[in-house]
Amino acid sequence: MLLGLSAIAWAFETLRPWRINQGNFRKDFGLDAFYSVFNFFLAPWLFLNLVYQFSDKLVGHHLEAASFISVASSPGWVQITLLFFIQDFSHYWIHRLLHRVPFLWRYHRVHHSVEEMGFAAHLRYHWMENLIYRSLGAIPFYFIGFSPLDLFWVYLISISIGHLNHSNLKLTYGPLRWIINHPVMHLWHHAETIPEGHRYGVNYGISLSLWDMIFKTGVWHTPPAELKLGFKNRDLFPNDFINQNLNLLGPSLSLSEDQRP
User: Fold this and answer.
1) Distance (Å, whole) CA 17 – CA 226
2) DSSP bridge partners of 218
C-alpha cells in the first residue's frame, strides 16, 4: 500500500511539479525514504505491539461495557465516515499540542526539519510520535463499538491524504479545500516564519482543513512556491536519522529563536 501510494505521488510530482527548482530526488530524499520504512514498518512492530498489548490488558475486557455508543452494526460507510472524523478531530488537537508544549515540540521538530517538501517528507517524524498519536488518539475509540477492519480503511484514507499533502504539487481540490487538507495549505504549516497573527503554527489539520476553519487556525491563500521551510536556526539541527532522534535536549531553541517554544 505504501509503495503504491508513494509511486503515484512521485509520478504526479514528476509530471506536474509545483517547485520546479527541486529535483525528483530532492534534498534529504534518502533520509525521508529511510524514515518511511522505519516509521511505517519497523516502529509499529517494535513499539506499537507493546502499547496495544498493554491497552488490551488495561481496558480490553471492559470495552463493551465502556462503550457509550456502538456503530458496529451500522453500514460500513457510516462506520468509516464516523471513525474518520473522530480520528482526525483528535489528531488535530494532538498536533496542536505538539506545537504548543515545549517537550513535545522537541519531538515534532524532526518533522519540521524538512527543507524541501515532497511526498516522502510525510513520514519523517520522531519515533515517539507513533506512541503519542496512537495512545492519545486511541482514547475516543475506547468508548465506541466499531468494526476493527474499518480502522484499516480510515488509516488508508489518512495516509493517502497525508502523502499528497506533503507532495510537490499545486493542488487545492477546488471548493473542497475548505474541508480537505491539501498540499498548498499544508506548505504554510511547514513555513520557517509563522504567518502573522499566529504564534505556534497554522493549518494543523491532518486530513481535514475543516478544523482549522472552525477553530480559526487556518491560512488559506497560496504561499510563494519557494517559501522557506523549517524553523529558525535550522542549521543547528542534525541532518541524520540517529542524531535527529537523539537530539532532544539541545541545541536549545527558545521561543525568541524559533517562534515555537
Assistant:
1) 12
2) none
- Specify whether the CB–CB gap between 205 and 195 falls below 8 A: no
**pLDDT value at residue 253:** 45
Give alpha helix (H) positions in the chain: 2-15, 29-37, 43, 49-59, 63-66, 76-100, 102-108, 128-136, 148-165, 183-189, 210-214, 241-246, 255-258
- The CA distance from 165 to 177, in Å, is 12
pTM: 0.86
115 with 28: CB under 8 angstroms? yes
Rounded Cα–Cα distance for residues 182 and 185 (Å): 6
Those residues with Cβ within 8 angstroms of residue 36's Cβ, 6 or more apart along the chain or in another chain: 2, 6, 120, 122, 123, 124
Higher-confidence residue of 75 and 4: namely 4
Dump pLDDT digits (tens) for 51-108. 556 555 554 444 444 555 666 677 778 888 888 999 999 999 999 999 999 989 999 9
